[in-house]
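Revision sheet: structure tokens.
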Amino acid sequence: MKIKKAGKFDFSDKIIVFIATGAYVGYFPFASGTLGSLWGIVFYYQFLELQPLFYVFITFVLFFVGIQISDRAEKVFGKKDDGKIVIDEISGMMFSLIFIPKKIELIIAAFVLFRIFDILKPIKKLEKIEGGMGIMADDLFAGILTNVLLQIYVYGIL
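Predicted:
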């Protein structure tokens, strides 16, 4: 795929950019990843109301679609893992909250832990994966790690 310059987006590129940037929150001049993570919480509240297993399904769908979207967005922006791409934070935050009770203190804890793991990137090798999978993988790991820690806390596992 040819890399395009900003302002030369065709219609499909505009859709990719809209989704990849979390409805353009990725363009916020600072903390765009934090805003993307907040979108994940919004989705948690929206989809959890329907049925917890549907939330899990949507979370996995968003992850796999996110691989394709972020791969294409990387080409559109012409930059590896451009900071404007926040679909990975949205997806990772949603993984953080799978089967976590809807209590504000747990949601705040999930948000803080996820952001810490997303920023610190405990497994640096995940960033070296090329394309959309590389963009999504470190946030998937951060989300799963956050979820495991919260499951241990909530359900007293171990």
